[in-house]
Each structure stands twice: as C-alpha cells, then as structure tokens.
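Practice problem: predict the structure.
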Amino acid sequence: MPWLLLVIAGLLEVGWAIGLKYTEGFTRVVPSVLTLAAMAGSVFLLGLAMKSLPVGTSYAVWVGVGAVGTAILGMVLFNEPASAGRLVSLGLIVAGIVGLRLATPV
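Answer:
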C-alpha cells in the first residue's frame, strides 16, 4: 500500500508541475486551484508513504516519477524535444526507481 500511495503522489506531482504552465503565473483561477490541490494531495500522500518507507527512497521515487512524467508530458503537450539522449536519461531514472523498489523491503 505505501508504494501505491507513493506512485499516486508522484503522478499528482506530474499534475501540479504541468498545471503550473496552465496557471499563467497563478492568474487563472481554475488551473490555479487544481494545481494547488494537486500539490497538497501529492505532499500528503508522500507523507503517508513515508510512514512505512525510508525517507530517502520515498523522496527519490516521488521526484523520479514526477520528473519522468513531467518530461514525457512536456514532449507530448508542449512539443518539447524527444531526443535519444533525453529518452535514455529518462529510462535511467525509471531504472533507478525500479532498483529502489527492488532494494526496499516492505
């Protein structure tokens, strides 16, 4: 269960990172409210996951899921470059997340 909470927290991190683009400096009300809600939910679920998981593992996985998801959505939604180097680097982050999962007993 803590791993599921952690992945959901990471996905909410993707939501608020992408949401920041749509807030236009927090001048648009609906995107701003949704972004702030995603921020709060993400941190809340991260905190719950940390009750059972090591802090270093939790934070690294949370940031990793957020970074990979945000980079991929940036490529899809905002036409950011999808070079081989970027994709390989994102793959390495995913490999690190999997490695942390395999190395962390729960």
